[in-house]
Amino acid sequence: MNKAYTFFLLLILCCVAAKGQTIDELKTLFENEKYGEALPQLKKMIKTQPANANLNYWYGESLRKTGNPEMALKYLEIASKRGISAANLSLGRTCEALYQFDKASVYYNNYRRMLLQQKRATDEVDRDIIHCKMGFNMLQGVEKVCVIDSFVVDKKNFLSAYKLSHESGSLYYFKDYFKSDSTSIATTVYENERQNRILYGGASTDGAIKLFSRIKTTDEGWSTPTALPDVINETDHVNYPFLLDDGVTLYFAADGKNSLGGYDIFVTRYDTNTDSYLKPDNIGMPFNSPFNDYMLAIDTYHNIGWFASDRYQPTSKVCIYVFVPNASKVVYDAKTIETGKLIGLAKLNVIQSTWIDSDKLNAARKELDKMLSRKPIAQQKSGSRNTFTFVVNDSHIYHEYTDFKSEDALESFKKWEEEQNKFEQNKKRLETLRVQYAQSDSTLRKNLSSTILLLERQQLEKEPILEKQTLLIRKLEIMKLTR
Prior knowledge:
The structure is a single chain. By secondary structure, this protein is α+β, with helices and mostly antiparallel strands. Strands 2-3-4-5-6 form a 5-stranded antiparallel sheet. Strands 7, 8, 9, 10 and 11 form a 5-stranded antiparallel sheet that branches. The protein has 3 domains: 16-139, Alpha Horseshoe (Serine Threonine Protein Phosphatase 5, Tetratricopeptide repeat); 146-373, no CATH class; 384-481. 46% of the residues lie in helices and 18% in strands. The N and C termini lie far apart (122 Å). The model is unreliable at 9-21 and 375-386 (pLDDT under 50).
């Protein structure tokens, strides 16, 4: 009897010790941020100890960190009620990820009061409270955007999803473009159509990631890198530039005080009158979220855009959204639309809900099909080389760069060609805008009219300039021919 009792007691002690060891191992995994590895065992243990405060906190936080905020709420609420003060911070971030900014604010303020009672710094949670207010305000102005497709790709190769036309420029990874591994994060390079200007994210002297510009000076060389102004490079993480083919509209991503999540997408424009960039604007929802959103690129020739987001994605993945750019920003009426539906439109969790205009959707899909079926640039160049027709005089009509005898005339022609392409693209854009204006209500017409008037003025100013450039090219080439 004593032997049996002793054996039974030893068995209980061994089970308790084994269980204690498992909890210690889970705690180590959690503290080392190995949330995915800890989740299966935490899920088992929470069934046997549903009231354990620490297990609920670890499980809830691990769910949140691995992209399951909806499931995380229940367990974090139990942990909070059972005295885990850090659970309030996690609950705030969970509600923020679910766009429940009013609830998130309550949890953040609860956590802040606890920090003040313990005489601890509140800087981090103060930033969270500011982000909460920012998120709430953004939710009141969600843009009406037609998202025609979305798909998940590997983060390390996400640029392969962007199918830009040659006229819109090209995107590269820094390490591939410069044949370098000098940066510790994945910065990108934008190169314009003429391949004589680049914008890129690079490491500054203080180790921060900033945007730089370089101009091609010769066939082999580039100018010294020039950092973009502080109005753009105001934070330590500025990356993912894209310049529209108008040469003045710049999109980029930054992680700073004006960002809702990590990286947010911003837009600025170059003011030729003041020779400086305007203050960047956060482009808002649905493009930006409480997560990382970046690398917005627009092909104005086909009127198709892309951006990347890691919202609700595993660490190694990102979601690419393909959308139809608007001529001017139009937002949903937050006062008349149901909150849950508005949040869904902001989150882009069901892109079919953005398919309001079937004509726009079908036209965009046709354009996207054209882009996907287009031959690569190298393959295009190997085909017919009669890519243009330029009349010098009655006896000289050129179709290739090699036809030019004057180097000055050729360089002037290349510049004229780029400007002429932009002129034609804006002409098509104007035609599209005028059709939209005719089919729109008074509110949208008001927004469109300023864009149309600006483009019309630019076209009127540009036309005589192009004509003068044409005459100059002819003059330079004729002078060479008659020598």
